[in-house]
Design a protein that fits this description.
Oligomer: single chain
Helix content: 10-25%
Strand content: 15-25%
Bound molecules: heme C
Mean pLDDT: 85
Low-confidence stretches: 1-21, 378-382
Distance between the termini: 41 Å
Order of helices and strands: HHHHHEEEEHEEEEHEEHEHHHEH
Structural class: alpha+beta
Number of helices: 12
Shape: globular
Radius of gyration: 23 Å
């Protein structure tokens, strides 16, 4: 009896202590920072849209909802084989193989029925879309109040306006959201108090909730501001939203934390869909603005699929010497890509990357050293600019392999650390950024 009573006490006292911990001032502060909507101040009298973080991640699987959401992911039912993922080449008439055409169209169809592109923002037809926590903490890059866009990175203006004889850069701001299946992962990755949750096994360096589940769709709208007098030809009549972003673009003036409300163009939309059949577990897809489509057409018709990528093409240049190179067979591009930027040797990239990069090349570097996030992505300095020359396959032999979570790409020569201490985030660079921010700001 006594034993039973003390056992109950051990359990309940421990349990209560745990509860108290959770309600401590530190934890409350942690949660407030993690789930902040935006970093900037809403000016008096502002009447436009206001961003509210979508943070009610599903914690438990509701089997009916799970099933009905899964049915909407039509691309998962297209019978693709290993061969399809390894030898996707256009037909002689320039058309894509039917299955891949259907795949890309069903992704676009899914977006069209889930997301409404409006005059000044996105509206959701489906309530199960979510945002990441921890991205409204940094005063320079943190989310702004109108649409929750955060500063991603600068690109040279010459990438958009080749005739511009200027070294100026244009800032890219991004709004990203994760569908129901993405939300299921986020609800595990983060505790309700905004703490990163690790799995007890296998060696303590895996975050809970990953890999992302099949059916995950991540959609990111890339927006550019600070175009000044320049109008890039292919953005003629492109929609613009009003955002509260940096007053000066980096490169055009001093780095400033000051922000102003200004018109900013939607440059393109990037999508990642989780499909475990793919050699790296994902299919990347870019939708770009086509200003040849009449202005009167609905907005979604003016954004066209530019291409998809589902592998690094390890058998093509510069993964192998040019004399041994096979044609690219893990990227498919539509003719509109000729107006935009094509990445390394025909791999998928858009204006937000350079001609020597590709979507997956950047995204495979989403990992950090446990507890001290270091920018794996930027640390790859050399790869940013010179990843597509004749020596890169020797310098970075791992870069062009197809990595699949939980394997973590470890190609950076700069990391003098054991591979065991690397924590991977399954190709999500925004999640990487959120973890970095969490480590920086978490209340100790
Ligand atoms: C130069 C490196 C680079 C290239 C090339 C690149 N990305 Fe990204 N991407 C990033 C970074 C960094 C982020 C996180 C920053 C942010 O979201 O603000 C990101 C974020 C994203 C996100 C938001 C979701 C997430 O969890 O990361 C999506 C979706 C995405 N990219 C898709 C693409 C697609 C599709 C392509 C190719 C057309 C592409 N990216 C090319 C660096 C890159």
């Amino acid at each position: 009896m006594l034993l039973l009573a003390s056992l109950i006490c051990i359990y309940s006292c421990k349990h209560r202590r745990h509860q108290n911990d959770k309600l401590s001032g530190f934890t409350i502060a942690n949660r407030a920072l993690a789930f902040k909507d935006h970093i900037d101040t809403i000016p008096k009298g502002y009447k436009g849209p206001k961003f509210v973080l979508r943070k009610n991640y599903p914690i438990k699987v509701d089997s009916t909802l799970y099933k009905s959401e899964k049915e909407k992911c039509k691309w998962l039912n297209i019978p693709l084989t290993e061969k399809d993922f390894n030898s996707a080449v256009k037909k002689d008439n320039g058309q894509w193989p039917e299955k891949w055409d259907e795949y890309a169209s069903s992704i676009k169809q899914y977006l069209v029925s889930n997301l409404k592109l409006e005059k000044n923002g996105i509206a959701f037809n489906n309530p199960y879309w979510y945002n990441l926590p921890w991205l409204a903490t940094n005063p320079y890059s943190g989310r702004e109040f109108t649409h929750g866009a955060r500063y991603s990175f600068p690109i040279p203006i010459t990438q958009l306006v080749p005739s511009a004889k200027s070294k100026a850069t244009v800032s890219v701001w991004g709004i990203a959201h994760y569908n129901y299946f993405g939300g299921l992962a986020l609800g595990q990755v983060w505790s309700e108090y905004g703490d990163l949750q690790y799995m007890p096994a296998p060696n303590g360096n895996r975050v809970k909730g990953l890999p992302f589940l099949d059916g995950t769709v991540i959609h990111k709208v890339n927006i550019i501001g600070h175009l000044g007098d320049y109008t890039p030809e292919h953005l003629k009549n492109a929609p613009s939203w009003e955002l509260n972003i940096h007053k000066n673009a980096p490169g055009t003036g001093a780095k400033t934390y000051e922000r102003t409300l200004q018109k900013a163009h939607i440059l393109e939309m990037d999508v990642m869909v989780k499909d475990s059949r793919s050699p790296c577990g994902w299919v990347f897809c870019a939708l770009v603005y086509n200003d040849d489509v009449p202005y009167e057409k609905p907005l979604w018709e003016r954004y066209e699929i530019m291409g998809i990528q589902f592998g690094m093409d390890p058998e093509s240049f510069p993964a192998v010497p040019i004399t041994e190179s096979k044609p690219i067979h893990q990227t498919l591009l539509k003719p509109i890509s000729e107006k935009w930027t094509v990445g390394c040797y025909g791999r998928l990239v858009t204006f937000q990357g350079s001609t020597s990069q590709n979507c997956m090349g950047c995204h495979q570097t989403s990992y950090s050293v446990k507890g001290t996030p270091s920018r794996g992505f930027a640390l790859l300095g050399g790869l940013g600019k010179e990843s597509c020359d004749t020596t890169s396959y020797k310098t970075y032999p791992n870069y062009f392999k197809n990595w699949k979570f939980p394997s973590v790409y470890d190609g950076t020569p700069m990391f003098n650390t054991s591979k065991d201490s690397l924590v991977g985030y399954d190709f999500s660079l925004r999640l990487f950024d959120a973890v970095e921010s969490y480590e920086e700001y978490k209340v100790q």
